[in-house]
Specification:
Largest sheet: 10 strands, mixed
Order of helices and strands: EHEEHHEEEHEEEHHEH
Shape: globular
Structural class: alpha+beta
Helix content: 25-40%
Oligomer: single chain
Distance between the termini: 49 Å
Length: 296
């Protein structure tokens, strides 16, 4: 150990350092990730805590914006700090800036959240490689969704992250139906399009597994998701699983490229962002550029 001031790290373009944050949260008390005036949001909470530490407004960019009530275990975000701010989090303490920022950010979050302390946790802090962007450098995002389709499985202790479904679901029918949607497709029928945004995505996994406890876990993985896409996919699949629609119905809806009266959003509270995967450090800039080009 040494009492000398640690050397400032090499800044990225514009003299700023990009800091990667790994975040988990209980989405129940929040109106989604994105900042909204007058509402408690995850982004607003994290930015307020960072602002307390850095003493200026800090903008946080996230891998995937989650809806109100949706949870996350493996969310990834980034923010930009000056080299002086990065080293300044030490405040005279002899430790690495990443460890110091993680410790102090957890404390600031506890103060911001008050009675909701623990609803948002930062699990890791690190300097990001050159070219890293939490949103555009990602290779894929993976979500899970929990369904209890018999009253025997309706555990009051898990009601905040499990859908209590009134009818028994056929997992095999849902898997047969889901496989037809895999690959690069236009998912306009399964999302709320935003002006100027593409609805083409690569759906890599969409599967249903009933565990030994009887709970159905849905896994949905794609390079990226349109607004409400996961909840729309699950909402359609359970109609097939209940026997209301044929296994071909999901693909027929995909080809129609339109939403109708049968479009159904599954409730948000059983949905969790589990993981965001990135390429090797040397490839994050190229991935960012490729993603931006595709979105354009």
């Amino acid at each position: 150990m040494t009492d000398q001031e640690p050397a400032a790290p090499v800044p990225r373009g514009g003299g700023l350092l990009r800091v990667r944050l790994e975040v988990g949260y209980d989405g129940g008390p929040f109106s989604g990730w994105g900042v909204q005036p007058g509402l408690r949001t995850v982004q607003g909470t994290v930015e307020e805590a960072l602002g307390m530490l850095i003493r200026r407004p800090i903008r946080v960019v996230v891998a995937g914006r989650t809806d109100a009530g949706v949870h996350a275990r493996g969310q990834v975000a980034h923010c930009d700090l000056t080299p002086q701010e990065w080293v300044g989090v030490l405040r005279g303490q002899d430790r690495e800036p990443a460890a110091a920022l993680l410790r102090r950010l957890r404390g600031a979050l506890s103060k911001v959240l008050g009675g909701l302390s623990g609803a948002v946790e930062v699990h890791a802090v690190a300097l990001a490689p050159v070219g890293f962007d939490a949103r555009f450098s990602a290779l894929w995002r993976r979500y899970s969704y929990r369904i209890a389709d018999t009253e025997r499985q309706w555990d009051p202790l898990l009601r905040h992250n499990t859908l209590w479904y009134q009818k028994a679901l056929d997992v095999q029918r849902m898997n047969t139906s889901a496989r037809a949607l895999l690959g690069i497709q236009d998912f306009r029928s399964y999302c709320k399009p935003r002006d100027g945004a593409t609805t083409r995505r690569e759906l890599q996994r969409f599967e249903f597994v009933r565990g030994s406890d009887g709970i159905i876990t849905v896994t949905v993985q794609a390079d990226a998701f349109c607004h409400n896409m996961v909840r729309s996919l699950v909402g359609a699949a359970v109609q097939v699983g209940e026997g209301l629609e044929s296994p071909e119905w999901l693909h027929e809806r995909l080809l129609a490229k339109a939403r109708d009266a049968k479009s159904r959003l599954a409730p948000p509270h059983p949905l969790t962002l589990e993981e965001v995967r990135y390429p090797a450090a040397a490839d994050v800039q190229a991935r960012q550029e490729l993603t931006r080009a595709r979105r354009a």
